[in-house]
Amino acid sequence: MELLDGKRLADEIKAEIAAEVEAIKKNGGKIPHLVAIIVGHDGASETYVGHKEKSCAQVGFKSEVLRFEDTITEAELLHQIELLNTNPDVDGFIVQMPLPKHINEQKVIEAIDPKKDVDGFHPVNVGRMVIGLPSYVSATPDGIVDLLHRYKIETAGKHCVVLGRSNIVGRPIANLLSLKANPGDCTVTVCHSRTPNIKEFTKTADILIVALGRAEYVTADMVKEGAVVVDVGITRVESPNTKSGWKLLGDVKFDEVAPKCSYITPVPGGVGPLTIVSLLKNTLKAAKKEVYG
Amino acid sequence: MELLDGKRLADEIKAEIAAEVEAIKKNGGKIPHLVAIIVGHDGASETYVGHKEKSCAQVGFKSEVLRFEDTITEAELLHQIELLNTNPDVDGFIVQMPLPKHINEQKVIEAIDPKKDVDGFHPVNVGRMVIGLPSYVSATPDGIVDLLHRYKIETAGKHCVVLGRSNIVGRPIANLLSLKANPGDCTVTVCHSRTPNIKEFTKTADILIVALGRAEYVTADMVKEGAVVVDVGITRVESPNTKSGWKLLGDVKFDEVAPKCSYITPVPGGVGPLTIVSLLKNTLKAAKKEVYG
Fold first, then answer.
1. Is A106 annotated as catalytic?
2. Which is the catalytic residue, given B5, B91, B117, B119?
3. Is the pTM of this model over 0.95?
């Protein structure tokens, strides 16, 4: 059993991006510039955006955070987005979710110029990804592809079972891995809350991707010997044995499943660290105009 | 075993659309208007467009065909598309494929205003469909959904196996049937040319959708007793026993598979007749501004 070490990979890819930014600087090119919009004072959002800023600094990107109170109107937020859309100095930007209830999140997502949509949530980018055209792939599925790719895990002809059908994980990773690509060319099965017999599917999986958000849902009896297991779940639970009083659990019962696997992600330290790297990759692509020319 | 009679359903839905158009007329509303662009003199394209015109006439739509020689430049074709995009009298339009080699088909598809893209091939419409937003769904997957819906076939919790991963059939129908919807809520597996053991999957399918383009590929031993089989394939083969000298075959060996099925589509007369109906439905939606408001 080998651990899929997302932390190590993230550092490796960040170093590659930093080197590329260094080269751009030397050649007098434009430094990639990422902007994050944050509305209100949600603790988790602050943490995410903080990580993003730190990562931008590590690779030499220019980064900015635009902060608005949660009293901002939808119209004013859309206006701010339009300013970023038309600002030639800004290569990419994200709007940190969730937004206050009086703002329509889907409307906000669709207001972002697809060329600057480095979160990859705009329907144009989703559609382009599904069709197999160049696109900004959203963070978690892109991180999973990176893991499989960098660990040289054979995917062609393998049966990949995805648990979960969310728009940000299950659905895009299922589409990506069934494409004629490498990683890709998998036979892909998507299971979800309405699948009555999930175990029958997971037991046949060569590659099992779990994104249900149910702590320790996958047990050893559900996994085939030698499988590759990617655990996207992350649930915070009370833990009297830790200093903080809580710990993070994945969707996979790691201790009993790991011995059966050829590869498995730890939680934390698996897919998580790669999600921010994906944002950096997309911003670099945006600066280089690689997706839309 | 019951036949999924696409021809009868198509007539039924056309009658419903015709009644709606009649009502629009009575209320002094605008008659839905579909335009088809056809480039060159491809025989199959002429046939398709002919069928579309006839169907438009049947339901009372206004329809037009714009014909261009295959010497038309890409720039000129894009200009014609822009004229349709901005013509308020045109609700929807399609560009019949294939196009001559000097014209980039993807560029043409993306030039069409998504609001008028009644073929549903624009990445925006693909992305919206995948996310579960209102969209124009392309003809074949939409026809399959109609078949399942009108025959009241239970899909929730069923295992649907899709053979083929094309952008116009396999990929969209897999996405549609895994959505939280009715028809939908299926566990979906996508198999394709790189799947080494297709039979292992097809044998577990409650609903089997075949879109490989390989005549009589699916045999009785590949199908579970009681399965619902939807055959999208259509291949023209020589036949000394028919007057014309040829006949049409599906991807399923109908004679031996049919007795095992609860429902099965004939070929021809299954999904085929519903594809044009889907175009009519999308044009009506466009006229009523149901998708984009």
1. no
2. B119
3. yes
